[in-house]
Design brief:
The protein is mainly β. It is built from no helices and three strands. It has strands at 3-5, 11-12, 49-52.
Amino acid sequence: MDKWECPCGYVYDPAEGDLEHGVNPGTAWDDVPGDWVCPKCGAEKEYFEKVGE
């Protein structure tokens, strides 16, 4: 699955998810809730860019 990077440098890895914010490991980017934000800087999903697997 593709990883997604925030402008701040945080990388969302679907294999890891974001348990602290309710996103289970194995959750594809398209299945991450629309109101989820970067746990590091608070940026919204729309600002993330695909960085590949």
